[in-house]
Design goal:
Number of helices: 2
Number of strands: 3
Distance between the termini: 10 Å
Helix content: 25-40%
Order of helices and strands: EEEHH
Strand content: 35-45%
Shape: elongated
Structural class: alpha+beta
Amino acid sequence: MEKIILVINPGSTTTKIALYNSDKLIKVETIRHQNDIFSRFKLIYDQKDYRLNYIKEFLKSSNIELAD
């Protein structure tokens, strides 16, 4: 079974996502968010569902199941 590693770096205006197969980079993406989007959220934790939707789309476009 392949070991898939998902790396997530939530920044102030971006979400950087990368997929690795062990130590080999498979795919990387930087999602740029509009500043006014995050002004709606009081805490960074409140952004969780918003960012999670982008992460799920990234995995889907990479043909990776969340359970993997």
